[in-house]
What does this fold into?
Amino acid sequence: MRTLTLIILIIAMMNTSCDDPSRMANNPLYSTSSLPFEAPDFDLIEPGHFSEAFIDGMAFQLEEIEEIVSNEDEPNFENTMVAMERSGELLNRARRIFSNLTSAHTNEELQQIQSEFAPKFAAHSDNIWLNNDLFDRVITLYEQKDELNLDPASIKLIEDTHRNFIRAGARLDSDQQQRMRQINERISTLTTQFQENLLALNRERVVLTDDVEMLDGLSRDRIAAAKEAAESRGFEGQYLLSITNTTRVPALTGLNNREMRRKLWEASANRGLGENDGIDTRPIVLELAELRAERAELLGYPNFATFALEPQTAQSPDNVLNMLSDLIPSVINNTERESELILNMMREDGIDDQLQPWDWEFYAEKVRKAEYDIDESEVRPYFELDRVLKDGVFYAMERFYGISFEERFDLPVYHPEVRVFNVFDHDGTQLGLFYADYFSRDSKRGGAWMNSFVIQSHLTGQRPVIVNVLNIAPPAEGEPALISFSNVTTLFHEMGHAVHGLFSYVEYPSQAGTSVPRDFVEFPSTFEEDWAIHPEVLSNYAIHYETGEQIPQELLDRVIAARSFNQGFDTYEYLGATMVDMEWHLLSSNETPDDVVAFELSALKKYNLDWEAVPPRYRSAYFSHIFSGGYSANYYAYIWSEILAADAFAFMRDRGGLTRENGDHYRKHILSRGGSADAMDLYREFRGGDPDVNNLLIRRGLDSE
Ligand SMILES: [Zn+2]
It folds into this structure.
């Protein structure tokens, strides 16, 4: 079976110049969609279409690259840079649609295609970035760039492309390039394995009980779900609690039984360590750390972190470590203060013991209730999803940017719950399309994200088609969707990514929208979050779904005050994970330790973040962001972006807040520019100076001393 696939693949690769005409005619991915804004025609797309489009798409792009390279004319901007930007049309179109489908509405067939093509995409990328003849043409342009009479975005395109070649290994000799290809392929296999292991661990590491008393404190819905979960796995009459991505597990906030909490916490925090002959991810962690270091060394960097941070706004590991180290003392102080309240609460409960990690969230929840008197069921009726979306998110966008949203029902979607909106600019012209996919379901992975089906570019004439995906618990049949305040914040957050894509106004596809450094990309999204509590916006959307009354001011005050509660703990566990990430990637290839857990502990100790009651948000053995996602040596990016977001919002507030003038200023300098200029230059132009870190502490409600 495997050989057969391989042969078919080779034939397909060889056959590219005489395309299979039936494929061209029957596969909707092969041509530009005729729907408005080239919206994907989900009614026609089937999983099998992707494999065809990937195989041919890669082959077509290599042909295009070959054409560029074999052009006998001297390299110029048009015949090299522009030609590269235009290449890979089919592959890019198919991958954009595929990437959202495999996250938002996947199935076995799509998953299979995904794991089959992951290493092939890695090899394809090497085929372009390790092409010496192509690199030679780029070098020629790079050397002439200042005499070519180009605009700054075009010069940046040459510089970035040149740097991408070097970073991919284009300057290495052929033996080294061979090794580079091996490393890339191995890394791609290992990261896929790590991801598969984590999925299996989520299934394996469960806590079962046949005594419902052990679940005391959980809601009736949750207990019913635990019973169902056990039954679906063949454990009739039992209850099953499962873990989530992070060390923390949501059920820990409710479980009254301390022993049960300990078990659940340990199921989560000790996963991947091979307990009871279970899955052990530590060999993958060690091999990845070593391979990444070797890859960086091949390219002339002392370690992977230095390599990874070079194109980021942070630029170097030292800059990250300095900034984060400045935060650590105030974070520890705040966390200690929170722990005192928690210890008091424990003593009131008759527990005279050390504070354990499985106690924290449980008693934090009690403190939250006591101090802020917040009961979710009291708040939710004021946050009805549709009203939050239209009278909150869309309203804020209209007030700030002058844009408007209008739902349409004529475009095909990949799931009946997906909604589509026209987005109009302040002058009435249409900017693009916005898709909203808000409810969780089995075919969707966890978390929330933005994706682009079509990206804006003057060069290709395309305008943006953007989707926001969330995981809001669906309401019961016929009931309104009443959502949590944290869901409300996420709606605003993802809209921040969406407008980054929608307002994109650039020439080149590779510079469009969210194509910015990773430690900059969460800035626009985090920035929009703060409109959720702007009095004018809030009073417009926080309306009781039955009575039509506005949320009472004192309840609102409590909701807002509760936002800063537990921020010490949240920031502490986040920083712990960040430092573990940095330390793994600061190693050279001959410094790889033997013991994953001991190494992690020494990393935490080094930064004074080794308090046992506050373990890192992710421990190495299940840190998917850095061992299977794209955040290796980049986990700091969230807080780095938040510094900009907090500072930018404070700047806007001081200039009058929610005004069209402010919205235009921000759109002009940040959102419309995508990756067409240096990110920090854009920020300084917008702000008139550098960001002030104190605005982050204020935003998080952390005292600075
Ligand atoms: Zn985000």
